[in-house]
Predict the 3D structure of the following.
Amino acid sequence: MKNGLFQYLLVNISLLVLVAAILIELKPLRRLLKKQNKSLTDQLCLGIIFGALSISGTYTGLSLQGAVVNTRVVSTLAAGLVGGPLPGLCAGLMGGVHRMLYAPSSFTSLACAIGTFCFGVIGAITCWRIPQKRGRNLSLILLAILSELLQSLIILSICRPFSAALELEKVILPPKMVMNSLGLVLFMSLLDRFNRSVTIELAEQQHLALLIAHKCLPFLREGLENRGAMGQAVDTVREMLPDVCVALTDLEQVVAASGMELSAIPLPAQKAMESGELVVERDVSDLCGPPRRRSRAFIAAPLTCGEKQIGTILFCVPQGPNLILEADCCTAEGLARLFSSMLELGELQHQIQMRQQAELRALQSQIDPHFLFNALSTISALCTIEPQKAKETILTLASYFRQALSINEPFVSLEQELSNVRNYLALTEARFQDAIHVTWDLPDVLPVLYLPPLILQPIVENAVRHGGTAVDERHVRISIRQEDGRANIRVSDRGHGFSEEILKRLQNPRDPGYTGLFNVQKRLRSVYGGQCAFTVDSSEQGSTVAVSIPLIPPGGLKSKQEGSAADACRGY
């Protein structure tokens, strides 16, 4: 009899595993199992599905001595192990109630109903405790054996006469423990294999999306308004996905397309922007350009910047028996999220660059009007006594203002910056005659250095203003050295130095005073970050402002080489 039970249970387990294999190929269930965070409705659906499998185990069971030998324990335990506590309890309750109603006159009905519910409770309790790798099969076997022993204990405790219950358990307990343990291992292995395939599929999609996004990053930084850059982005996507036609839109028009011709934003894209969700339209080959042999589907995923919709990414993909549209949807959705983040970061970077450019404009507008007044007064005085000197000073003043006010580049050469400093010093020396003493300590060959404009002149101006040893005696030393790929610039004076209070104020971004040195320090750090060293050493014998920056600025000189003011602003 026991051998017959072994064979019968083996057939039932095989049938259960076959049904499970068929079920997980159904798209709704696959989609449900793939979800990492399942809603209450999702959990109830899983509980109902596994509860139905538990009920089917009762129908396929073998009636023997007033009991039904079945495989309910496999599907009921699996409900908790796969779906969590709620599906486990739901499946256990459904299977238990059905068992009670299935054969109410059977002396084991109540015990089997209670046992079935207990299976669901056990699955719910142990769902997070079963190991994922090593020892998993052994744990499942022990769990199935423990459940069958609990069912046997309930039958022996409740069912009467006791002798009939004991005789029943002697016959059915060993086959049930062996075969249902095997069934639980096979059932969970099938689901584990599905989970592994889903994980691999997601990893491949994520890898592909990240690779595409990495290649498109330089173009996405330019923003949706740059049609040329967006055209290169969609061409890059299509190179990675040859069978897919790609397009990008903003809120009003198609910005770029590769592989299809779109004169206006298609309806799926409009729906995606309105709903903020992925939209899929099947059999819409007419939207993908010229008629094609194979049926195609249209996928539209929204692009966002913060909470605001800014456009869509569109996929036109082929359909067929061997093609999985769901995978294309996941790829489109992943790319939309990555593209949105990159466009948002690009916009943020652009705003930062615009602010930096505004700071430069503000610095240019802060050229001391007293300096201009004094320079003009000096020229006026020179006109009567030294006309030639006055003429030279006027030309120097014109050159100084032309350089200071017409800079549109994010970086200028060291020669340009030094030229501006020399013009400033020439104007100052014309006013103070022989009171300004400047010592230049420069190498024979200047470093090939590009630096932000109007960096040196405010430092030198500060040294001239505060570096006086007397009313008519001001000493300034300008030193530049190149070492280990860096330029070290030092501007020293022989003044009385800064007080501790002033040095602290120089480090306070909210202090309105000392904007010259503070603005220089702020601009350098915004461009070079931690690669810039800016120090102020001060004593009663004078002060030294030291700047150390890389010879090659961050991001290279792309915007300078392009030569347009707008592009220079964006690359700053």
